[in-house]
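For reproducibility, we list the full input for the calcium ion complex.
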Amino acid sequence: MSSTGTPKDMNPSSDFEQIIDRGLSRRGFLKGGATAMGLFLAATPLAQAVAAASTPMKSKLLGFKAVSASTADRFIVPEGYEARPLISWGDPILSNAPVFDQSGSQDSAAQAAQFGDNTDGMSLFPLGDNRAVLAVNNEYTNYDLLFAHKGDALTADDVKKAQAAHGVSVFEISKDDNGQWKYERVSDFNRRITAYTEMELTGPVAGHARVKTAADASGKKVLGTFNNCANGQTPWGTYLTCEENFNNYFGTDAEIERDAHQKRYGLKAEETRYQWYKHDQRFDLAKNPQEPNRHGWVVEIDPMNPTSTPKKRTALGRFKHENAALTVDNSGHVVVYLGDDERGEHLYKFVSKNRFNPNDQIANRDLLEEGTLYVARFNAEDGELKGQGEWLELTHGKNGLTAENGFADQAEVLIFAREAATIVGATTMDRPEWVAVHPNNKSVCCTLTNNKHRGKKEGQPVGGPNPRAANHYGQIVRWWPNNEDHTSNSFKWDLFLVAGNPSVHNGSAYAGSGNINTDNMFNSPDGIGFDRSGRLWIQTDGNYSNKGDFAGMGNNQMLCADPESGEIRRFATGPVACEITGLTFSPDQRSMFVGVQHPGEKGKESHFPAGGNSKPRSTIMVVTRKDGGIVGA
Ligand code: FEO
Ligand code: CA
Ligand code: CA
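The corresponding predicted structure, in tokenized form, follows.
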């Protein structure tokens, strides 16, 4: 979801105070500018450190001509490229589905058989050169577009329709006679998973007292997944969908006090935006206080079997999951990096107990059942934008995770992972979004999208990988596990980029790192992914006002970076008021699938993708080169 602040929240003139706050040496300060005048003319030490974080050289990996920033209501790709819509919110995917009707008056049964709303993370599962199954998250929905009445006075069926707009859509795609990808209107693979699809709670939390409810005495049978943000893909052919802002779906009209756990996870004992609790008691916090403990997990889905039961993998911890970046280490252990997208929350890593066996895909299906969860602590010399880090184990009985500190057992450590992370001393981050593991070396990147509270709120000091107060631009932290071993408990890190606006903040830390310039600037990096050649694709979910601190950045966009040279080029720009999120490739890298989420949100005028007077619809675009070449090369 978009959650960047407004330009006025930012206080760029406070660079100087931050340097003093951070206790950077006076010597360093004097070197930066010996006179009061010099302070304004020369870069401050923090600005110098930020600028030096990444100094670009010309890339050999990037072969396209950059596109300009844009405020047009279009999806724009470089010269020599084409982009076509594949599927939009409301397109029919099950055999009983009606076609999309933009009046907003279709019922829940229609929505449950159509592509869900707000396309987000997605993965492609090949069925051959010209066929594949696409699994796609439908993160949330916008009531002003979903309903003719824009969300006033919801009926029971309206709530069910909203629930059906959420979840995951699985469908077959194939190439037509012209070599263009299209989705299959009828296929045995097509499936909708919604906020009321039955799933199994598995792993250490399954059956625990904290996840039993009036409707489920077993503590193992959960209905639904919702606010599925980003994703992951396993080498045993399953899809991972990650539950993010689940807290927003619970509410109540009763007068109740929230406990500390509920507060830490952002649950509210009041009327909430989606109002599901008014027609579905599961979402009434007063009536079902344990139901939220059954959400906020990573869910594993077999996209090849439409009758399979999705499994919530509790060993990976409960928080506002962004994506699940999975890699198999040299040792055979499966390592999953996981961000918790909230200001001042944390970055996690799961290491499987058992090892991947390429000859036993059935056994591999249990690899996410058992393992060890860790959380990151970043250490840095004061003023350095690089350093060492360590992974702190979140295991009951270790590192203070004991009954005296409020954790009865390992299940409670996992259900309340955020609180466990605080006890072990994890670093509070600037909203960890997607993590991406480099395909050909051991480096890993994570987008830290922005954090207006940095340097202002207790527990969120400026420093280390979060170097700027009132951070409205974001950065990408990168790390290398020690000994090139993803199971290692230590790593070294730097900042691959620090986003900023060099035309508005020249000479300050808000200008960004050396690889940010007036031609490629952007704010709030969110979705990221490497292609097989090691290009880093970056998608933004930021402030698209194109004014003030964001002047010249235009609409949300997609960039491509070369991790070796540091060069970053803008590859695509999205339509009005959208977020660009979700990417996957055909195996030959000649087609790239990109999500355009919520064009025209908050009443902004967009008619994407159909134009004319049509309602704006979240849409997956297929990007190809006119000469059939590899995308990005
Ligand atoms: Fe769904 Fe953190 O973005
Ligand atoms: Ca986001
Ligand atoms: Ca996101």
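Confidence is low (pLDDT under 50) at residues 1-41. The first strand starts at residue 81 and ends at 88. Both points were considered when choosing residues for closer inspection.
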